[in-house]
Q: What sequence folds into this?
């Protein structure tokens, strides 16, 4: 049996059409998701394997995308560390006991993989419910982004505390090595449960200079990717990373995710065409009229130039106010415009 187009593209093999999936494709823009959230809070949804699998599968099948991604959150791995993770309405995630020193790092609890078993079970149930032609993506936050939440106590504009901790090499290394261990175990558990590929979300790494990335992040991401189950495609994604692309490529990954702040063709040339790329429509474009969405999709496909190894996606997640029919129109446009005749 031929590999599904998404998995073939991860390996830079020929595909009948450019595969497409969308970050946050199970989210608040979708009525089916909102119906589930009326009975379950966000964390309760993440911890209910049945409900998490339901929204995962519903989104993939309704949109007609080429891959599903398990419903979870990048910060779930931090809760068993004993840092007081809370998801507050309107303010986003909060860490009640942030990590600001080497002593704070030492106090972090080691994570028993069983504490995150509900995500592996959601993967197992979603994989069983999906057609074989639709691969399932597992995911986790990358070490830097997880560290930034731990240190800042939540989101940040400057990441000043995180960068300050980097000046304590022992504390920073201990924190990153701990995160590498837990994320590798977490992703491998998702792979063992049936995930066909995994994505690392380094959502906030774009705040770093290239020199800081190379010194304080790259070795740890490289170690993490090397610890993952061989043969499983790895997507390495960050936002605001136009200045870091070559370093991210050096850190590893079968696919490098691109946000919308770079031209796909120029970014791919910088990375080298011996790696696959994913991206990179601006999520705001989905608020435009459908003819404009189609034109934007066509422009990105033109930049990819039918080269093996392009996975169409947004440059970040779907916005909550996005019309569902616009999302479906994008998926249909990518399939239609890229069909190999």
A:
């Amino acid at each position: 049996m031929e590999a599904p187009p998404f998995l073939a593209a991860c390996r830079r093999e020929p595909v009948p059409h450019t595969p497409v999936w969308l970050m946050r494709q199970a989210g608040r823009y979708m009525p089916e998701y909102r119906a589930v959230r009326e009975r379950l809070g966000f964390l309760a949804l993440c911890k209910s394997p049945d409900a998490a699998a339901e929204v995962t599968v519903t989104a993939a099948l309704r949109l007609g995308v080429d891959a599903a991604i398990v419903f979870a959150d990048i910060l779930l791995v931090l809760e068993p560390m004993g840092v007081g993770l809370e998801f507050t309405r309107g303010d986003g995630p909060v860490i009640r006991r942030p990590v600001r020193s080497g002593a704070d790092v030492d106090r972090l609890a080691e994570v028993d993989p069983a504490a995150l078993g509900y995500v592996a079970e959601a993967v197992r149930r979603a994989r069983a419910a999906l057609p074989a032609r639709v691969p399932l993506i597992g995911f986790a936050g990358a070490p830097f982004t997880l560290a930034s939440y731990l240190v800042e106590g939540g989101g940040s504009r400057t990441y000043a505390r995180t960068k300050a901790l980097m000046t304590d090499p022992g504390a920073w290394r201990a924190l990153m090595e701990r995160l590498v261990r837990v994320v590798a175990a977490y992703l491998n558990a998702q792979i063992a449960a049936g995930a066909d590929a995994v994505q690392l979300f380094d959502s906030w790494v774009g705040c770093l200079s290239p020199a800081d990335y190379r010194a304080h992040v790259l070795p740890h991401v490289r170690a993490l990717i090397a610890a993952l189950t061989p043969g499983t495609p790895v997507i390495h994604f960050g936002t605001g990373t136009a200045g870091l692309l070559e370093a991210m490529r050096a850190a590893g990954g079968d696919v490098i995710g691109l946000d919308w702040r770079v031209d796909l063709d120029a970014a791919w040339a910088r990375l080298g065409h011996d790696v696959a790329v994913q991206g990179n429509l601006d999520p705001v474009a989905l608020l435009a009229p459908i003819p404009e969405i189609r034109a934007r999709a066509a422009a990105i496909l033109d930049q990819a130039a039918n080269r093996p190894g392009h996975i169409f996606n947004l440059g970040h997640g779907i916005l909550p106010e996005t019309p569902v029919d616009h999302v479906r129109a994008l998926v249909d446009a990518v399939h239609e415009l890229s069909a190999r005749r």
Observations:
- The chain has a mean pLDDT of 96.
- Residues 99 and 151 are 5 Å apart (CA to CA).
- Strands lie at 68-69, 85-88, 92-95, 136-141, 197-202, 234-238, 255-257, 276-278, 310-311.
- DSSP finds 15 helices and nine strands in the chain.
